[in-house]
Amino acid sequence: MTKQYDYASFYPGQPFPYEQAETPSDYLETALAAERYIASKQLEDDDGVYWQEDGQSAYDISLFKGASGIAFFYLELHKATGEQRFADIARSAVLRISRFWRNAADKPVILFPGDIRFGLQLGVPGEGSILALAYKAFKEPEIERALRDIVAFLAENAKRDNEGGAYWNDNGLPISDGGAVLFLARFLGISDDADAKKLAVDAGEHILRSGREVGAGLSFDKPEPPAGDFGPNLETGTAGVAFVLEHVYRLTGDKKYLEAAEKAVTYLKTLLVPQEKGHLLPVRIEHDEPISKVTRTSTPRWATMIQTMASCRATTPNRSAIWANAAARSAPDASTIRLPRIPGTTRTST
What we know:
This protein is mainly alpha-helical and about 350 residues long. It has helices at about 25-40, 65-80, 85-100, 125-140, 140-155, 175-185, 195-210, 240-250, 255-270, 305-315; strands at about 40-45, 50, 110, 115, 160, 165, 210-215, 215-220, 275, 280, 300-305. The protein is globular and about 55 Å long. InterPro entries: 6hp_glycosidase-like_sf, LANC-like.
């Protein structure tokens, strides 16, 4: 049965709600309105600015739902408006993050798909990625020291496979090991550190070997226990791993990483669902049985993989055939959504 998600405002057979911006300034006005709400939750101590919801006691510094994500918002808001107060808030926040990032690294935090301390969204690499962006803006020595300490933390905790590849959770998803690679790539944008580059490339090599051939494509999707659900999305699926491999290609110039990313997109295109305008790609595919016995899929919510596709397209501008019909559009009526057939499975009902 297809589930209903109140937070996504999606109900099968009903129109998918959205608002259409009338002018480009509508986007900025919405961002400024969001900032006014965020500012109402702002706190400050001797170490800098941070934010907490009412009743929240822990200091969350993650990219996904904490201070790193909000600091990134303020960095971008300063770029968009030129207002110095936004830069000042971002600077204060990232200095505080640089002093407390170890709080998120002290002990393992085990969720799917492993120890999320090493992932982008909820782990140290996400915090480090924002510190790297902030260092470009502010050139603070304290931020640089924190960045080098984060690189050392990743190096100290890396494991090695029999072929010299590096890994932390043996999983290339951005929420896991792929996030560490994305941070290292960001760090190498501000530092010519040979050891950090070797660690990133060794991890990329390990991730590359984890791909599974599906027809002419390459899948990195990891079924979640116990039901075998999986998501081909940017955070926890093949789209995200393709994004990681494209970054390794940029670091090395070795086309095997780019070719693997392209093959991943070929696989993702088999999951695209035609709409009246463009296509949609399911953010998650659910199964009633383990993935080896799948007979039915349901996809209650949707997300596009534009970031992965656009990134690879920018790297391979002469291969436009790969990207035909890749852009996604919201369906005007959810009842028109058609579910995808998963390669290698038989769908008996939808």
